[in-house]
Amino acid sequence: MNYLRMENLELAGKRVMIREDLNVPVKDGSVTSDARIRAALPTIRLALEKGAAVLLLSHLGRPVEGESDSQFSLQPVAARLSELLGMPVRLESTWLDGVNISPGEVVLCENVRFNRGEKSNDEALARRMAGLCDDFVMDAFGTSHRAQASTEGAVRAAAVACAGPLLSRELDALHKCLHNPVRPMLAIVGGSKVSTKLTVLDSLLDKVDELIVGGGIANTFIAAAGHDVGNSLYEPDLIPQAQQLIKRAHARGGSIPIPRDVVVAKSFSADAKPLVRHVDEVGQDEMILDIGPLTAVEYSEIIAGAGTAIWNGPVGVFEFENFAAGTRAVAEAIERSHAFSIAGGGDTLAAIDQFGVREGVSYISTGGGAFLEFVEGKTLPAVAALEAVAQAHKTS
Ligand code: ADP
Ligand code: MG
């Protein structure tokens, strides 16, 4: 991947605008999880060390575009960022017409989504944003799959555009994992629905040596293999596609194993009584909410033997303690394994934190949608723009 990297640029005395993903959960005016703010700190500190004046951009939530709404203000983010950096961080609410800033200062520009044209990647808006800086740094992997004014548009409009260290580290890790994997390569794809993961399953099948499915996705595969799934969440319309994937796996000399045992319950609730069943003994009034203990051991062994493991999607309803054992086993097997492991997805990250295995995963992607699109082999528009401007820079 050929783009400029912030680490290699001279930034002393420059106005540097950095697009981060500071879209954190906020409750009653306070940030409830600051992981994304912390992830951006090294980039911000590096820009300050290089002598830049730092302008930060981010979105927060889904406000009605074109309207400023205090509910989606970045004020709580400015406050938390200021604590973490140990210096004042000014929130600028009207910034598009110009910002007063000196080298060594950090200004957070109010929610980019308050500006009409952000989501439609309006060129004039992108030019106004890029016009505020000497160098534009794209550092928000989680938004790089969307062509918007503060991402793709500003990269193209800026005098100089580069990737920030958080973004380039993420791209390097994903690239290494997908294009130069240590074999055998394993993917674990769980979650609720096949429909949201069909394209990712499809493209992974050609890359990996082994594919494990879990969660609601596995239910559709269990049904595709001819078993009754009772009341389970599954997608009957997608059974033909699941059968197609199973066939393709066989044609490549592999397989998509289905759980040998499962944990079922009569209702979808935290206090529902868990029962372990063989996969072909699920009752009409039961739903599969987790993989069973034998399957958990089996999957853990597969994970132990992997050279590379890519994980997206919990294999059960891990939010309920009674149905969390399968996902815990997968998380702990990844933690123990020597494989280069990479995980992504909103709920997958929640599971990783719930089971305390963060340290044991080689790389945790900050992006949900962007992570899946990268795995699918799609071009991420903001990254493509970084490559295009670097190419133009070289040949001019
Ligand atoms: P991610 O955000 O990591 O990509 P998904 O959003 O695809 O993951 O799926 C996560 C959700 O899938 C969780 O809320 C989990 O409870 C649910 N899930 C997992 N297994 C099952 C199952 N057997 N039945 C119903 N829901 C399930
Ligand atoms: Mg999710």
Structure, described:
It is built from 13 helices and 16 strands. The chain is of the alpha/beta class and about 400 residues long. Helix 3 crosses helix 4 and helix 6 runs parallel beside helix 8. It binds adenosine-5'-diphosphate and magnesium ion. The site of magnesium ion (MG) has 3 residues, from helix 11.
Which molecules other than protein and nucleic acid are bound?
adenosine-5'-diphosphate, magnesium ion
Question: SS-based structural class?
Answer: alpha/beta
Strand content: 15-25%
Number of strands: 16
Helix content: 25-40%
Output the strand order for the largest sheet. Answer: 5-6-4-1-7-8
Q: How large is the radius of gyration?
A: 23 Å
Total number of helices: 13
Overall morphology? elongated
Terminal-residue CA separation: 19 Å
Q: Secondary-structure element order, as H and E?
A: EEEHEHEEHEHEHEHEHHEEEHEHEHEHH
Biggest sheet features: 6 strands, parallel
Roughly what is the average pLDDT, rounded to an integer?
Answer: 95
Low-confidence stretches: none
Structure characteristics:
alpha/beta; 16% strand; five-stranded parallel beta sheet; 396 residues; binds adenosine-5'-diphosphate; six-stranded parallel beta sheet; 13 helices; binds magnesium ion
